[in-house]
Write a structure and sequence with these properties.
Blueprint (H helix, E strand, L loop, with lengths): L10 H31 L3 H29 L1 H19 L5 H29 L2 H32 L2 H23 L4 E3 L2 H4 L10 H13 L3 H15 L6 H21 L5 H24 L6 H32 L6 H8 L2 H19 L2 H32 L13 E3 L1
Antiparallel strand pairs: 1-2
Length: 420
């Protein structure tokens, strides 16, 4: 079996280089930032949780207007500015010494990150032909996981030394990574944009697109799988099963390596809305099976048998994750009007911060507190959302086709202007 590690030359490879440059620092930041904020800055875990919840809530709202800014001013220049803003926010953490300043820096960080994700998607849409986008996004996801894994190893060194200098070095690395990301993005060609005055219609058109909102909501539900691996499964493993505690780390490594190795292959068959809907539907079925297997792990009393059941559940979970990701990428792009890709991607991308904000509390209550029935309920929720995606996508496509009919009042295209 051959696995193509690098994306095609040109814009896809440059986008992958930008992804790698900041994901290494992010991986180190994710594993060590909590201890930096508690042991060096002096914040309590409650303050950290509250500050990050507020920050990501604001960031999820900011993604749409910043995506619209990328549409109007050009995705390349907007991406570069937001990469620099993210670097500045990470650098500001080096000087934070109080809770209010932490919240301010965290808000800037979350807003810039959400806006950068939307602008990057608009940049990719302008540089990569539609039939190739899902494959390129699969390469970018593999690159992201590789960078996060390498960064997590670097962050582990900081944890081992457990000094203020080691944690500050991680923050400096992350800030430098975003600076490098901005420099790489700046080397990409400028893209045409449509001036706001020539576009017409509502400035934030996505907020009036009810079918797309339903699709985005269903995607947000499916993204509840994100805190599953980072929070719910570790707590479940330790508190509800006989499996050894170190298995938590092994399951994380399994997920990371699987996405690195197989995400591109898993996305190959997804080339349009129909195949994307089928991929999402399959992901829901596999995710339901995964939840059932995780639930069964509580009934196995041998440590090694429980570990084996958890590994099976984790394998099913990562298969569902890769299928859902491939389908969602295609759906998010296919339903977005060409002139509004940035704001539509910003809206579609709100599912990530929403899942990160609401997911931990919901999954902790549902799985750790409620137990086995909670896993079955969660699996049913995933399955229902995946099955509803097909009708929602068809509704959105019909609405989009109606908006393009000659008798429908549509915004004028306006002249294209090359910008950064």
């Amino acid at each position: 079996m051959s696995i193509r590690v690098l994306p095609p030359p040109g814009a896809p490879r440059a986008l992958a280089a930008a992804q790698l440059s900041n994901s290494v620092g992010d991986g180190a930041y994710y594993v060590s930032s909590a201890l930096y904020f508690t042991r060096v800055v002096g914040l309590s875990p409650t303050q950290i949780g509250l500050g990050l919840t507020v920050a990501w809530a604001i960031g999820s709202v900011a993604g749409v207007p910043l995506g619209a800014l990328a549409d109007r001013r050009g995705p390349r220049g907007t991406s570069v500015l937001l990469a620099l803003a993210t670097a500045a926010a990470v650098g500001a953490f080096l000087f934070v010494r109080s809770f209010p300043l932490f919240v301010v820096a965290a808000v800037v960080y979350a807003v810039a990150q959400c806006g950068l994700a939307a602008a990057r998607q608009a940049l990719l849409a302008g540089l990569v032909p539609p039939p190739e986008r899902t494959a390129v996004l699969a390469h970018l996801q593999s690159t992201l996981n590789a960078g996060l894994a390498l960064g997590a190893a670097i962050g582990g060194l900081a944890l081992r030394h457990d000094t203020a200098e080691a944690y500050r070095a991680v923050l400096a690395l992350d800030a430098a990574g975003f600076l490098l990301c901005g420099a790489v993005l700046l080397r990409l060609p400028p893209l045409p944009r449509t001036p706001a005055a020539a576009v017409g219609g509502p400035r934030l058109a996505v907020l009036r697109d009810r079918p797309y909102a339903v699709v985005a909501l269903l995607n947000a539900v499916l993204l509840l799988r994100m805190p599953l691996l980072s929070l719910a499964i570790p707590l479940w493993t330790v508190e509800r099963t006989a499996a050894p505690g170190w298995l938590v780390s092994a399951l994380f490594v399994l997920n990371t390596l699987a996405v690195m190795a197989f995400q591109v292959r898993m996305a190959r068959g997804v080339s349009g809305p129909a195949t994307a809907v089928r991929a999402v539907r399959r992901s829901g079925l596999v995710m339901f099976a995964s939840c059932a297997v995780f639930a069964a792990s509580a009934a196995v009393f041998s440590p090694w048998a429980a570990a084996a059941v958890l590994v099976v559940g984790a394998v099913l979970q990562v298969i569902a994750e890769m299928q859902q990701s491939a389908g969602a990428w295609q759906i998010g792009f296919a339903l977005a009007p060409a002139r509004h890709v940035g704001q539509y991607q910003g809206f579609f991308g709100t599912g990530v911060p929403v899942a990160r904000t609401a997911g931990p509390l919901l999954l902790t209550w549902l799985l750790v507190t409620w137990g086995v029935p909670g896993w079955l309920v969660l699996g049913a929720v995933f399955l229902a959302a995946s099955l509803l995606m097909g009708p929602a996508v068809r509704w959105a496509r019909r609405a989009g086709a109606a908006a393009r009919e000659p008798g429908h009042t549509a915004p004028a295209e306006g002249p294209a202007v090359a910008v950064g």
